[in-house]
Amino acid sequence: MSQSRRPAARHAVLPDHSPEAILNALRTGPYGHCVYRCDNNAVDHQVVLLEFEGKLAVSLTMQGCSHVEGRTLRFDGTRATLLANESRRELLVADHLTGETDLIRLPEPVGGHGGGDVGLMRTFVRAVRGEVASVLTTARQSVESHLIAFAAEEARLSGKVIEMDL
Asked: With a threshold of 0.85, does the pTM exceed it?
């Protein structure tokens, strides 16, 4: 068996990694069940359409069952398109007028969540020390983003459009 990239998770699931123990866990536990025949209610795909003030439109697509791991982002503006690929660690800027592209390779992230955990803690410590005026987002912005996520889930469950005033 190949080594897991997340050994702690492997130990949480099964402390004994012998072939016999693994086969027994697959035969008798939940990890041997077909995900499509289980009674779980985890979302495997979702498309969320948002419209903000000024007619700014955003679409978020989450695809859980894919051979591609990681996030991809696409921002289309009036002058250029920005494509971001988390798993390949690259940004591509495509200029609409000239047709030129600029590929930017990103360094290997340090720490959890693509380095975001380290960045959050670093900014928090700097804010406490008084080195920066504020953290990256305000409490209000954090609450608003969570309310949007809750509205997306409500829309998914009800099949209805959710109107929000933030």
From this structure: no
